[in-house]
Predict the structure.
Amino acid sequence: MSKASNTRHTILEKAFDLIYKKGYQTTSIDEIIATTKVTKGAFYYHFKTKDDMGLAIINEIVKPTMHEEFILPLESTNDPLDNIYNITESLLLKNEYLTIEFGCPAGNLTQEMAPWNVEFSNALNEIILEWQSSIEESLQLAIEKGSIQTTVNPKQVALFVIAGYWGIRNYGKLAKNIDCYHTYLEELKRYLNQLK
Amino acid sequence: MSKASNTRHTILEKAFDLIYKKGYQTTSIDEIIATTKVTKGAFYYHFKTKDDMGLAIINEIVKPTMHEEFILPLESTNDPLDNIYNITESLLLKNEYLTIEFGCPAGNLTQEMAPWNVEFSNALNEIILEWQSSIEESLQLAIEKGSIQTTVNPKQVALFVIAGYWGIRNYGKLAKNIDCYHTYLEELKRYLNQLK
DNA sequence: ATCAAAACATACTAATTAGTATGTTCTAGC
DNA sequence: GCTAGAACATACTAATTAGTATGTTTTGAT
């Protein structure tokens, strides 16, 4: 990686971290350049505006990360329902980048920005739709294989799972204790099993 | 209501509306006093700080409203599962104060403020715990009456329902279309029926 | 080695922010 | 009607904000 694109990437990563913890609007450019030790000139060389940087974070940090941690594991040969449970459990209890008090980065950005920034909204929507359709597809495959009931509606289940994940992430921000994650996972397991 | 307490209440209501739509941090005092046509002197006579007003909004607007719309309907004599479904449907599709693109006021505030404001966090947590425990209690009663399975774990189901609600509210902010609410409600119905 | 463009550095600006200082007016009890 | 405190009004401040103007340095191709 060239020195310049390294600077750009450093900004994106540190800014992502600040935004994940503090929110987008309340993370200032001054704060970002202070923690990255990059000057304002360098920042505005790489990004036209703050929103330009925000979009780059969604597309170049959030999107690939979610692809790796949410989508790819779904494509394993295990039972789709097991996959969904294991991915959720892993995200809630084992992921090293996410902490309970700060929630889900994509969820946070959606909550904060979706009503007021069409570009953010579209970029986030793309990511979520990708997640949703890969859950759907894996469920559809399971129906065809006969491993889950034919009355299962893949679209509904996918949405239900995603909503649950975002919701428990937000709940966790209040509870600040992983007990709620365990409780949630127990019920998720029951819910998924009942689809078999 | 005296003129003074009327001023105070007007501030709280209009500020709530702005904060619901724009977020807490990005709603300025200047904006609040502009839309309420109250002067800064009046504002700071009624509220020590912005956070003081924020707390008052949670305790005096959000809390009673949620009590009325989330808790009280649970106490009707219907089947608890029907109650849960009907309340959720009513909140998602029929509530006149809530709109899909702006999500859930309590969920928004949690997302934005929980990690950084202990007082907000505590106040919001109180509200959610009240909601949660009233769902729990109504499920417990149903178990005792024999109308749902004895293997149902009320704590788990309550958390699952709340997470789902907050999650679909956040999802809706991206989707900006009530189709997702209908899809979610279908699966919620299926999930709840399976507990019988 | 030269040179043009890429990459970065510094010092500024104009707007907005929460909050304050210092008033004036209204209202209720006497 | 008088008066004290409640209720409100106006003009300010200091800090912070995103973004810009105007530079200097670094880099890679020739």
User: Anything to note?
Assistant: Chain A has two domains: 1-47, 49-193. The radius of gyration of chain A is 19 Å.
